[in-house]
Amino acid sequence: MPAAFWLVLAACLYFAVMAVRLTVIDVRHHLLPNRIVFPSYAVAGILLLGAAIAGAAAPAGGNLSAALFAVPALRVVAGAAVLWLFYFVLRFAYPPGMGFGDVKLAGVLGMYLGYLGWGHLFAGTFLAFLLGGLWSVALLAARRGTLKSSIPFGPFMLAGTAAAMLLPA
């Protein structure tokens, strides 16, 4: 099996472990700890950039130019930057609506979704807000929350990303 497959598999396994840990912590404490989020940038970055480079170099037998394999690798970096910036703008526009932990997590999730493509980046972001909105409506309908209630958004970001990762290319 090609190296890119194993690198993507390792990245997905890491994502699953990270997502479970962060979901449990965020639900219990409304916190996305830096000790988990910051190392995730390095782990996801190394694995996904390695997969992007290995995946692009393998099919042509080494005849590819640097520009050809840079495109998926650039999407990993650009996906992180775009999603981080989007969440940062949301945080800046209405600070009580989103914690900075969500902004930091967005960069990591942007790497995963960027690796898959711009459509996945959009879908994962949309699904996060859709799932969070549906959960909020359910809390309101069940009278377990009010319009002023705060919900941990990290689990919805992670679920939206996971769902988008399962979408076909």
From TrEMBL:
Keyword Membrane: yes
Similarity-based family: Belongs to the peptidase A24 family.
Gene Ontology cellular component annotations, sorted alphabetically: plasma membrane
Protein name, as recorded: Type IV leader peptidase
InterPro entries with a match to the protein in the record: Prepilin_IV_endopep_pep (IPR000045), Prepilin_peptidase/N-MTase (IPR050882)
UniProt cross-references to Gene3D superfamilies, sorted A to Z: 1.20.120.1220
Membrane-spanning parts: 6-24, 36-58, 64-90, 97-115, 121-142, 149-167
Domain of life: Bacteria
Source organism: Arthrobacter nitrophenolicus
GO terms of molecular function: aspartic-type endopeptidase activity
Domain annotation Prepilin type IV endopeptidase peptidase: ranges: 14-136
Keywords assigned: Membrane, Transmembrane, Transmembrane helix
Signal peptide: none
A biological-process GO annotation: signal peptide processing
Keyword Membrane included in the entry's annotation: yes
